[in-house]
Amino acid sequence: MTRKRVLVLGGNFGGLTAALAVKHELHGDVDVRVVSASDRVLFNPSLIWLPFGKRKAEDITFELADTFDEHDVDFVHGEATRLDLAAKQVETTKGTFDYDYLVIATGYRNNFDAVPGLREGNASTITTLPDAIKAGEAWRRFLDDPGDVVIGASQGAGCFGAAYEYLFNVSYQLKKAGLKKQVKLSYVSAEPFLGHFGIGGLPHGESLLGMFLKKEKITPYLNVGMRHVDDGQLVLDDDTKLDFKYAMIIPPFVGQDVVKAVAEIADDKGYVRVRDTYQTEEYDDVYAVGIAAAVDVPWQTPTPVGVPKTGFPTEQQAHVAAKNIAAQIRGEQPREHKAFGEIPAVCVMDAGNNGVIILADHMLPPRKHGVLIPGPQAHAMKLAFEKYFLWKSKHGYVNLP
Ligand SMILES: Cc1cc2nc3c(=O)[nH]c(=O)nc-3n(C[C@H](O)[C@H](O)[C@H](O)COP(=O)(O)OP(=O)(O)OC[C@H]3O[C@@H](n4cnc5c(N)ncnc54)[C@H](O)[C@@H]3O)c2cc1C
Asked: What's this model's pTM, rounded to 2 decimal places?
């Protein structure tokens, strides 16, 4: 019998985990191919440190080819350009590939259209490696000619954790540079209240974040959209004008255009509608995991907020998908289920030399438990986790926690 072919699009948290996990589930008895636009894994959570020179690109990335080679996974450094799901075929910049099972793990791209002026580079962002490198160049120019600073997350953004981390890291760096007293530091967010995080908040989160902002003398502007950002000024929907010498704004994310083009599986943001098995609603043999998978925002806020699709749920989804593909290949029904909202929230928010550990039994309410643990151990934990994640992923030990 010919071996089944699993094709994975994307090679970061979701794609790497799904590809290696499915290989492992079937003890190698499956052909797995990964097509990824990037030839490297990027540990995105460390992008918050890159602009300050605390990390270089090579510290937080590694090449995929060696890892996949070691685990007998075929790696193609290329970009998927067209999905033909009826024909079970994907066109890429490196040729056309047939599959028996497809996993879409193509993640996000920035939606700069959300705030006019972002595309023109009037404010920095840190959500991709090239963006974070540019944010570092802007930071160094700022240090030569300092002034007020604005950090924020726009309407529709979901990655609030990164906005808070960058805010507190900026505050820490300002202190180190002796600039803290002369700089007004503002935080602008679509969140309805401090510590909402796009997950509805956690017990005592609002008061804890409020305390942090007060201690760091940061002025919050909450529950407000950004109308436009000009060179040196951010204009909010309520007409507030914030002048700045340095600004970093987290935009909303959307899915990749190649996915959005397949209207039968994608929503209007280009995310794939999935069941809790991570199979698409339409195709039993097509899966989507990580940021590429759609999540319904379970609330309406006055200013729209997205849901943060973080690393832990991404890896969990990839394992669920891998187990279900393995079951299908063995001729069984997919039995693993784990809805996004029911996956535990496990996150560390870094604050320069301090931080907060965030733990909850469910990503989204209703929850039984949720706790925020502040202190310097959170910073140490993020440092350790970065090293652990890169080591674990590089060696392909995706079954480790
Ligand atoms: C600044 C920042 C900080 C973060 N901090 C944290 C944190 O502290 N903790 C946490 O848990 N999570 C954090 N996250 C979220 C975490 O990075 C994501 O959960 C994770 O990256 C999702 O992985 P993914 O594989 O779904 O998508 P991605 O990481 O977006 O990977 C998608 C992959 O697909 C590839 N690709 C794209 N288009 C194509 C195509 N057409 N064909 C083939 N390949 C394609 C890309 O090159 C990429 O390799 C952070 C994210 C950011 C941006």
From this structure: 0.98
